[in-house]
């Protein structure tokens, strides 16, 4: 059994005596705190934090990180407080332990919400100290190694969470070894039958003669490199099982189509030797076209650097060759944890992935601040944990790393939040392109902005990065509140006009009483609620003036539609009113004002709530573009539809759709068109009626049915 003395022996290889003593003191403190507690397997509980510290010692974690690892469950599972830990081991250790601890004193509506709150707390602690996630990953890794003691349902839940959150985080931080262990263990726990079947298939395909072929391959490469006086270590590996499964599942490929089941890793001492080795490999084996990637020149977002090429081996089986330096190999295997290995050795040349990882963790703060709740926060973070990336350039040559499937909107927010909020279009490789275009590596993207532009709700259908989606939602939420307050103010003012007063003349006592009645904090909250239809302006006005006789009230003026009210004034699709039509407004909860044609039959359905109706009128200067449909009845002769379409082709009106709804000698078609006034509509209808084969043109609304 692994003991604290075994850990101390390992730590003495890279930590000074007094720091090793502090770690040992933390172990005895944890042993006493967890006295009497046992794991599901029956072992004393303290064996778990000791195993977590062992994992971190292999990564050369520093003294405070190891101390926190040994104490990471003390706050959560014992009666010891954070203050007590601070007194014994210092604020740094106590902060790390608190960041790793779960939320145990709150009640949650669901397991999903509980996990989201826990992850949000941990992520915020990560932003202060990246060691929090390293301790948590080591904690999760040991839990996965001892998962068999858990009941089946809990085992599957923990495995799923590991695949969804913790393995991708390890990947994002460049910790290859930890990620592979987490994925392999979670895959076997969540899909035990698939894991066994795939392992058997791999062994059947590659198992025969594998040891002999591997040795022969290593000898061949080693002799060729020696002939060129290149020193390097060579290892042949099999791609881990979950990675193979992912490629087969996502890309719908068979095992025969996976090109990098077998791989060769070549580690050398110098940067320039990597490219020399690449030349030797391509001379020795036939490279497969399109399968070369230079991650040395353009590192991955987690700091990973290596040359990748896929070649056909001597037996015709594709294999991936990875070529890197010793420093790159350390960073590739341990990722951000390599930072501490360099730190304790006193090396000044720190790996750049530490800065990259820290930058990513800091970006979690912005996502968290603008997310509406922890569940949304976790969903947005998940979208940032894609294993595949694209690398695109700004016009001045800066590289921006984005997940696969990212669009120019994601790029814009990746450069700066304000650029994302004001972007209107883009150029990809100097050509105008839609904002929904999926970007590819190597492209140069230029974002075109406008001072008064704002995010569009449609962007949420194609933006995929957490930063983009969070900022879009945050902006739209703030804009909706702003619009709702403005409309609520107008609606309340209109209602108060009937009482011969206005909002400014209300007393503080009147306002306080109404806010208390509706459990609202501020006047803006009340106005927002009125604007969103949760409260009715007229009824609020009656509350403010309960003693006034209704017979003395003045009829309020019509509510003017100016066309710039924002997202809380919309037009009913059932009757499609356009400027010039007689209209009425209906205040619907959380949708604001829905404008109907005055004669729309659907208005009759709402007569049970007359206080929600508003007399409305069009503003004088309104130029609102609205969609309507025309029903055209025509004689079905040769070229009839083309003649109808061409009759309005030279106007400014846009035809969005043309649909034949009835065929015969006399046919009918639906013409969808964007129009801005009754005058324009009359002009379009006159032009269509002038076509010789047309018998009748009517506007399609419920009114006319």
UniProtKB/TrEMBL annotation:
Q: Which GO terms describe its molecular function?
A: GTP diphosphokinase activity; guanosine-3',5'-bis(diphosphate) 3'-diphosphatase activity
Give the highest taxon in the source lineage.
Answer: Bacteria
> Which UniProt key words apply to this protein?
Hydrolase
Domain TGS residues, every copy: 388-449
Q: Write one Pfam family the protein is assigned to.
A: HD_4
Q: Which PROSITE patterns match?
A: ACT, HD, TGS
Q: Which reaction does it catalyse?
A: guanosine 3',5'-bis(diphosphate) + H2O = GDP + diphosphate + H(+)
The record's EC number reads 3.1.7.2
**Family label:** Belongs to the relA/spoT family.
Q: What does this protein do?
A: In eubacteria ppGpp (guanosine 3'-diphosphate 5'-diphosphate) is a mediator of the stringent response that coordinates a variety of cellular activities in response to changes in nutritional abundance.
Per its record, how is this protein called by name?
A: guanosine-3',5'-bis(diphosphate) 3'-diphosphatase
